[in-house]
Design a protein that fits this description.
Length: 347
């Protein structure tokens, strides 16, 4: 086989091609090495990140376990609080039943005072207000009492007051309203040891003794009348269409008002009954102190007088609901701020 005449030229061209390809291969090898180095670096970074994620994952698992333990403790404490709240509410509800049993029965009052009503609304479940009633022959004693505080503390004091009134009127047979307040003051100070501990708890009271005396016994027991005494308490009465107000003494029962508490006395006021029946109203300060109205202020005594006078024109069977609806309208969106007691009778 004969070689082409230009075989040398062909051979040189192939040598150049091979040299060029060798250079390209070398460049590719260089790029491959650089890529491997970059991959190794990236791999190292990924390894570090993976270790960090694993460590973080462990911490997250630990945090999650701690969170679950914390939530379990919160749930445990919540159940304890719920049980304590239920026990407390059960105790207060039981106290309410005791306090309601302590109050005089309305039907028994109406046996002696057919025209009678009481509007009694504690602010809380139990009340620092209470009303009291007792009858001895022709003498009927009735009172509206507002103890220091409301809720449970006020209710405890109301039970003390109720028992002391039973002791004074029922056992000791004291029926003059001023003497009842004087004795109640001494008994309460003794019960609460106020001479020693400076305790200032007390009671605002409006109390009446009604003498419904038959004509045949008036020579002996006097004319039919209502006797009133107040310890920071007030009496409203409507007689022959005219509105009257008698304010009691300016100090309460219990507490410290002067240097001679053992000698504290109260004033007795007498209203003689006439042929036309007279309407009487005793009350605590909860009604007139209630916020409401367009100006969002207290009802106050002047408006309360108007409410009482308007109510006096209604039958006694309607007066409780009248006082309730009037107060609800006045209150509007305001919460009740105090215990409320209004009682009325006609003789």
């Amino acid at each position: 086989m004969e070689l082409p005449e230009n075989w040398q030229e062909i051979l040189q061209n192939k040598d150049k091609t091979i040299s060029l390809q060798a250079v390209q291969v070398q460049e590719l090898l260089q790029k491959l090495q650089e890529a491997e180095e970059r991959m190794a670096t990236q791999h190292a970074i990924l390894e570090k990140q993976n270790h960090a994620i694993q460590r973080s994952g462990g911490q997250l698992l630990k945090n999650n376990a701690e969170t679950q333990e914390y939530n379990q403790e919160i749930d445990h404490q919540r159940k304890i609080i719920e049980k304590q709240s239920k026990d407390l509410l059960d105790g207060v509800m039981y106290a309410q039943r005791i306090q309601q049993a302590m109050l005089p029965e309305i039907p028994k009052i109406k046996e002696l005072l057919p025209d009678f009503f009481v509007f009694f609304r504690p602010r809380d479940i139990v009340s620092g207000d209470f009303y009291w009633f007792n009858n001895k022959s022709h003498r009927t004693v009735i009172a509206s009492v507002d103890c220091t505080g409301h809720g449970v503390p006020g209710a405890f004091l109301s039970m003390i007051g109720n028992e002391l009134l039973n002791k004074i009127v029922v056992l000791k047979n004291i029926t003059d309203p001023d003497k009842i307040l004087q004795q109640l003051h001494l008994e309460l100070r003794s019960t609460l040891h106020q001479a020693d501990n400076q305790n200032q708890d007390g009671m605002d009271i409006s109390i009446c003794t009604i003498h419904q005396i038959p004509k045949e016994r008036q020579d002996l027991f006097g004319m039919p009348r209502v006797e009133f005494a107040g310890a920071k308490g007030t009496l409203f009465y409507i007689q022959n269409g005219n509105f009257h107000e008698i304010r009691g003494d300016k100090f309460a029962v219990g507490g410290i008002f002067s240097d001679n508490e053992e000698g504290r006395t109260f004033t007795k006021h007498v209203i003689f009954l006439e042929e036309n029946p007279t309407s009487f109203y005793l009350f605590s300060d909860g009604y007139q102190d209630q916020f409401g109205g367009e100006r969002r202020k207290k009802l106050m005594i002047p408006r309360f007088r108007e409410v009482v006078f308007e109510a006096s024109n209604l039958p006694f069977s309607q007066q409780e609901s009248f006082f309730e609806q009037t107060l609800l309208t006045w209150r509007g969106n305001f919460s009740q701020i105090d215990d409320v007691t209004v009682l009325g009778f006609k003789v």
